[in-house]
Amino acid sequence: MIRVLVADDHEVIRHGLRMLIRNEADLQCVGLACDGVAAVMMAQATVPDVVVMDLSMPGMDGLAAAREIHLSHPHIKVLALTFRTDMAWRSRAVHAGVVGYLSKQTPAHDILRAIRCVARGEVPVGSLVPLAATPR
Question: More exposed terminus of the chain, fewer Cβ within 10 Å: N or C?
Answer without folding.
Answer: C
